[in-house]
Design brief:
Layout lengths: L2 E2 L17 E6 L8 H10 L9 E3 L5 E3 L17 E6 L11 H17 L4 E4 L3 H4 L12 H7 L3
Parallel strand pairs: 1-4, 2-5, 2-6, 3-5
Antiparallel strand pairs: 3-4
Length: 153
């Protein structure tokens, strides 16, 4: 699997995870072909150390490395310390559908990550609030359309 890496201008260093219990699937809730640097900057504007996801799958199926896979992310409050975040570009909350290329890339990324973290459970971001028992972190992410597809992946 080919993952594109960028020379991100990370404001700070990273802490590593001690365990990886979850692979959390997201959507960016933006355009399917958004400039990846815009996502990085949006996350910096939130006060984060750059892009919060570990991997972003663009509309054409290209996977771009965000944070290093071993690093603690900023994508799922309450589970960042024990998870990897994979986000598909696009808004899948009733208004869009992942492209076939994105679905194939998501499958490829899941296979790759499960080889690294075989015990990790694959969940949608919306499941985090229940797992951490905190309704304040509830979200519709990764959108209804993508979430319904997760069971078949």
């Amino acid at each position: 699997m080919n993952i594109i890496t960028k020379d991100w201008p990370w404001p700070h260093g990273f802490s590593g995870r001690n365990s990886t219990n979850y692979i959390i699937i997201h959507h960016t809730a933006g355009p399917q072909m958004q400039d990846i640097d815009e996502i990085f900057q949006e996350h910096c504007n939130l006060g984060w150390n750059g892009i919060g996801y570990h991997r972003v799958i663009k509309g054409d199926g290209t996977t771009v490395q965000g944070r290093p896979d071993w690093a603690i992310g900023a994508h799922a409050e309450g589970l960042n310390y024990c998870s990897v975040g994979v986000s598909l570009e696009g808004n899948f909350e009733g208004v869009g559908t992942p492209t076939e290329a994105q679905i194939q890339a998501l499958k490829d990324n899941i296979v790759d990550l499960k080889e690294k973290y075989p015990e990790a459970k694959i969940i949608g971001h919306r499941e985090v609030a229940e797992i951490v028992d905190n309704p304040q972190v509830a979200t519709a992410c990764p959108g209804e359309t993508l979430y319904e597809m997760l069971g078949s992946l």
